[in-house]
Write a structure and sequence with these properties.
By secondary structure, the chain is α+β, with helices and mostly antiparallel strands. Helices cover about 30% and strands about 25% of the residues. About 30% of the residues are buried.
């Protein structure tokens, strides 16, 4: 399948390919359709950089820019320039995808990712994931703010701590109880 890199997004113009990717794991978003059904759309899909990199790495798509194939090194350079802590976030995205979750951007929830067990439209994302590195300092106020937001939208707040050197991702979940 072919995807075209346009700034920091990828477009799969072929409708059949778009449907296949979307139905194979909710990859991408059909253009102009906020809540699409499985294969009931007639438009291209837009992939974010995490989805594009992940699918390219799995040889599911080939990425082109201005008619030329984009190699892995160039794609990685583009991703690192566009996304703060791209490698760390990609490690978390990959770990969640490989654990069977559907992963979407979590920016509307104040997180890096939202993780679904079945997929958007089928269930609500039970988890909000914020990516961190071991040297990051997180205050109690940061945790309370994130936890209050997650509780408000009925989700569990998770911090994914990534150690690139050790190639490790650890997840710390927070549950909020009322006394």
């Amino acid at each position: 399948m072919r995807a075209e890199l346009i700034e920091n997004r990828l477009v799969v113009w072929d409708i059949e390919d778009s449907r296949k990717l979307f139905s194979s794991g909710f990859f991408g978003k059909p253009i102009g359709i906020p809540k699409p059904r499985q294969n009931e759309f007639e438009v291209p899909i837009i992939l974010d950089l995490f989805e594009g990199y992940y699918l390219s790495d799995k040889s599911e798509i080939q990425i082109f820019q201005d008619g030329k194939k984009v190699n892995r090194e160039k794609l990685e350079k583009i991703c690192k320039e566009a996304v703060f802590q791209f490698k760390e976030k990609l490690a978390v995205y990959t770990k969640l995808r490989e654990a069977g979750f559907v992963v979407t951007p979590g920016v509307k929830f104040g997180a890096d990712f939202a993780a679904y067990e079945r997929g958007p439209g089928l269930d609500h994302a039970p988890y909000l994931v914020r990516v961190s590195i071991p040297s990051n300092k997180m205050t109690a106020t940061d945790i309370v703010l994130a936890g209050r937001l997650a509780t408000t939208v009925r989700k569990q707040f998770i911090i994914a701590v990534v150690d690139i050197v050790k190639d490790e991702v650890s997840f710390v979940g927070f549950d909020w109880w009322r006394a």
